[in-house]
Specification:
Largest sheet: 6 strands, mixed
Helix content: 55-70%
Radius of gyration: 29 Å
CATH topology of one domain: Rossmann fold
Structural class: alpha/beta
CATH architecture of one domain: 3-Layer(aba) Sandwich
Length: about 900
């Protein structure tokens, strides 16, 4: 999905900035009329969850009067109309007049109100210093001694200003301050008995809590808010509140809960016969169905198709039931993008002619709608190969160009530099697709200059990337590398800004895998594509870029910039270890090898990425089944060995390497490197093996073995729909025989509270958890099972890291002995790496699939026995795996191969 679609973010409620934690520049880009929630005293319900405005809806905004209007109230209202029409520059002009008029008349309340509104408009224009000055002036006026009355009017304006300030603080990356500010706003709304204001401020607080990682507190607040709403009589406030809550639940991955709340909102809206609220709920229900389809598409194709149809139907109903042209167009555009995404081109063709942009007055939303439409048409051309760009028909290309040209013209008229950059850059994309590269370069450069003029790095990187592609197509490899490098550096600076974007949330219409990941991969491909020998400089840069991609993926997994990277050389970590970077590129598997005290080595296997991925997918599925064809598994394992290890065999032997450390890419993460076979032996029989997302994320300290104090927790009984693990009891008993200083939490004692109490009370270097769990490509679906609860990875992270924060004593080794990666999830190992990195543990042992708990007990007994002897963690795991390999009952890789060590291997 395009970044432009993201800027069309559906407004789920005017009093919410966004249902995800929003940071820095993104906050000023996606809030369309949201900040007026508490700025416009009598229109708190005017803008509903789908962005429909019941004020000036579908009408041209009133032009700025040529003669000054002396009445501040009239100026304030005129500015609101401009703002709601998304003509922000005009709103600024009128509200500046309102400030002056209020000063002349001595009306401090209206002056404060005008400054507050000015701050909202400045935020929309990306002028954050001006926004700060304006809101500071508003709060100063409201808090001055002569203005400190307890009138409802003043308190209402004060609460509105606090909400605006909170949004600005969050946009500036100050979530702690935003949380306090919104708590103050809620207190004032409670004082003046303003229920909608209370609900809105509480929802704002939840978003700040999410940003701060206070997930348990945020969840508790959401539960309290739901209780509050459910206890209210059916009303518009209740319908919109439930709608907002449903959108938040979708954002945090609670999709079924989201659907339940949205259906309830729809039912109330239908009873109230409110077209705006009905279409809002239908639109959000479509988005939730779309999110569910994405979640299940690999594991359950039938269920995914049902949800896609649910989304199609709901989008159609949203467009049909709405009385707002803006909502109708938005629903139709979302439906069009879904039809193209699911290759329903015939239906998409029928729909495209029904979308009526002429009904939309000039506004930022209208510009984005046109750009979105144009981009979808481009995607149709690319995907179906039936339209003009693919077939040479110039008529379609001209039609798309006209749409974008009109969008550019409207943006210039509105003096909206951000919208202008999107429209011009998208026009450059059209020329790129039409292979008119010189013209595309000119337009893209113009778009980049516009983005840079408003410090919009989040837009700029898109055009830097586009310039890189264009330079490559023109044969200017050096310029292409320079442009791509700039784009990657911009992305690094935008870590926090991009992380609020949920890749599976269709409300956001942003995909990390389509809009961020390719920038890194295409740069690596450029660096490693040369007719001559690849230079050490390019190899070093390629390695750095692929490690940066690993970091970006983990950040995206947790939806926050949570890991600190420090460059480090393998020689400084372990002089007997080699680091191997296999990278899946479009036409090859590239491998960079880092040996101690040696230049980097590089070798490739020329093969289309589709073939590589297909083989990896087949091997992953076969290895996780006890009934799989063993000969086939051996054959596939040898092929991968030939690609990754065979070319380096001599170098590994000559440098006397003992440990192989893999920085794995894509689906390779789901393949156990231990099971690669050279025709005679498995790799685990020759080397200790470890995984890491990159050397720059590697904790440098080795394991301190003064005392192997261990906290062992597990479930042996069936709980919450999961089957019993009878050998867990034996597993924990065996650990106690190997490690005398062991505290045990078994079955009923293994609760989240008891686990937290134990971890906080004693500094256990080793935490061993034997229970059901799942690693997934999303943090919402990554969890472990306790006696009475599913503990999400973010909650687990908070639990495990609390001791580290209090005592600066991180967990040395974290073991999950019965968890597995999610079936059908090609990026599930991200969850494994995410847990390993975020838990604060120096090393983590886990499994790629759920294995026999009897063999697990045998392996873990041997693992702790070897660990107690003082060998490295990687060597202890290798010897434990060999114990199973040499046992005729367990020699099949299904039993011993899934155990992986992530992090520090010493």
């Amino acid at each position: 999905m395009s970044m432009i679609k993201f800027c069309q973010k559906t407004i789920d409620r005017i009093f919410i900035l966004h249902h995800k934690p929003i940071t820095k520049k993104w906050a000023t880009r996606i809030a369309i009329a949201l900040l007026t929630a508490f700025l416009t005293a009598n229109v708190s319900l005017a803008v509903t969850g789908n962005g429909e405005s019941q004020i000036a809806n579908g009408k041209e905004p009133i032009p700025i009067s040529q003669s000054p209007i002396a009445n501040p109230q009239q100026l304030l209202q005129q500015g609101k109309e401009f703002f709601q029409a998304e003509q922000f520059s005009e709103a600024v002009t009128v509200w500046q007049q309102a400030v002056s008029a209020s000063k002349v008349s001595g009306d401090k309340l209206n002056q404060a109100r005008a400054y507050n509104l000015l701050s909202a408009a400045y935020q929309q224009l990306g002028q954050l210093p001006e926004a700060q000055s304006a809101i500071a002036a508003s709060l100063s006026l409201l808090g001055s001694p002569e203005n400190r009355d307890d009138s409802t009017d003043r308190l209402s304006i004060f609460a509105q200003a606090l909400n605006t300030q909170g949004h600005l603080q969050l946009a500036l990356g100050k979530p702690e301050a935003a949380l306090i500010t919104w708590q103050q706003a809620a207190a004032i709304y409670s004082q003046i008995k303003h229920p909608e204001g209370i609900i809105g401020s509480q929802i704002n607080q939840v978003q700040a809590m999410q940003y701060l990682g206070l997930y348990r507190q945020a969840r508790k607040s959401l539960e309290q808010l739901e209780t509050t709403l459910q206890n209210r009589p059916d009303s518009t406030i209740k319908a919109t509140g439930l709608h907002s809550l449903g959108s938040i639940m979708r954002a945090i991955g609670e999709l079924e809960k989201s659907r339940q709340l949205l259906q309830q909102s729809l039912k109330i809206a239908q009873e109230l016969r409110s077209p705006a609220a009905i279409s809002a709920a239908q639109f959000s229900l479509a988005n939730t169905a779309r999110a569910i389809a994405k979640r299940v598409e690999r594991s359950d194709d039938t269920a995914a198709k049902i949800e896609i149809q649910n989304a199609v139907n709901a989008y159609r109903e949203a467009a049909k039931s709405s009385t707002s042209p803006k909502m109708q167009v938005q629903a139709q555009l979302s439906l069009l993008s879904l039809l193209v995404e699911t290759e329903q081109f015939a239906e998409a063709e029928k729909l495209r002619s029904q979308i009526e942009f002429d009904k939309l007055p000039p506004s930022r939303s209208a510009i984005y709608a046109q750009v979105n439409f144009a981009q979808t048409l481009m995607k149709m051309s690319e995907a179906s190969r039936q339209l003009s760009i693919a077939s040479g028909d110039e008529k379609q290309t001209t039609y798309i160009a006209q749409i974008l040209a009109q969008a550019v013209q409207q943006a210039q008229t509105l003096k909206d530099i951000q919208a202008q950059s999107y429209a011009v850059g998208s026009l450059g994309r059209l020329y790129e697709l039409n292979q008119q590269y010189k013209e595309a370069q000119k337009l893209t450069h113009e778009a980049l200059v516009s983005a840079q003029s408003i410090d919009a790095s989040d837009i700029a990187y898109i055009w830097e990337w586009q310039l890189g592609r264009l330079a490559k197509n023109l044969g200017n490899r050096k310029d292409a590398i320079a442009a791509y490098t700039t784009a990657v550096e911009t992305l690094k600076s935008l870590r926090s800004d991009l992380l609020a974007l949920n890749p599976d949330n269709p409300d956001v219409q942003f995909s990390f895998r389509e809009s961020v990941e390719p920038v890194y991969r295409q740069l690596v491909d450029l660096l490693l594509s040369t007719e001559t020998e690849t230079s050490q400089e390019n190899l070093l840069q390629a390695r750095s870029v692929i490690e940066s991609l690993q970091l970006a993926e983990l950040d995206n997994f947790f939806q926050e910039a949570c890991l600190n990277a420090k460059p480090v050389q393998i020689d400084r970590v372990d002089p007997t270890a080699a680091v191997i970077y296999p990278i899946i590129l479009p036409n090859k598997l590239a491998v960079i090898l880092a040996l101690p005290n040696s230049p980097l080595r590089y070798y490739t296997t020329i093969k289309p990425a589709q073939e590589i991925v297909a083989l990896l997918d087949e091997l992953q599925q076969d290895m996780g089944r006890i009934s799989a064809n063993k000969e086939q598994i051996l054959h596939l394992s040898q092929q991968i060995y030939d690609w990754i290890i065979r070319p380096a065999e001599a170098d590994l032997k000559n440098t006397q390497v003992q440990t192989l450390v893999f920085v794995l890419d894509g689906l390779l993460r789901n393949i156990p490197m231990t099971a690669l076979h050279d025709g005679k032996q498995y790799l685990i029989e020759k080397y200790s093996i470890a995984l890491t997302p990159g050397l720059q994320l590697l904790p440098p300290q080795p394991f301190k073995r003064k005392q192997l104090r261990t906290l062992a927790a597990g479930l042996s009984q069936a709980r919450q729909g999961f089957p019993a693990l009878p050998n867990v009891r034996r597993e924990l008993e065996e650990i106690k025989t190997q490690v005398s200083a062991t505290q045990e939490l078994l079955d009923g004692e293994f609760t989240e509270v008891n686990l937290q109490t134990a971890i906080n009370s004693v500094p256990f270097p080793v935490v061993h958890i034997a229970t059901h769990g799942q690693f997934s490509s999303t943090s919402e679906n990554t969890f472990i099972l306790t006696w009475n609860n599913k503990v999400n990875v973010k909650e687990l992270d908070n639990l495990l890291r609390r001791r580290e924060q209090q005592e600066s004593r991180p967990i040395e080794l974290l073991v999950f002995s019965a968890c597995e990666t999610a079936a059908g999830d090609d990026r599930a190992a991200l969850g494994l790496a995410g847990v390993a990195m975020r838990a604060g543990a120096r090393s983590t042992v886990a499994t790629l699939w759920q294995v026999n708990d009897e063999s697990t007990a045998v392996l873990m007994t041997e693992f702790y026995s070897e660990l107690a002897k003082g060998v490295t963690k990687a060597e202890a795991l290798r010897l434990a795996q060999q114990t199973l390999l040499q046992d005729k009952r367990y020699k099949f890789p299904y039993y011993w191969a899934p155990y992986v060590l992530v992090g520090n291997w010493r």
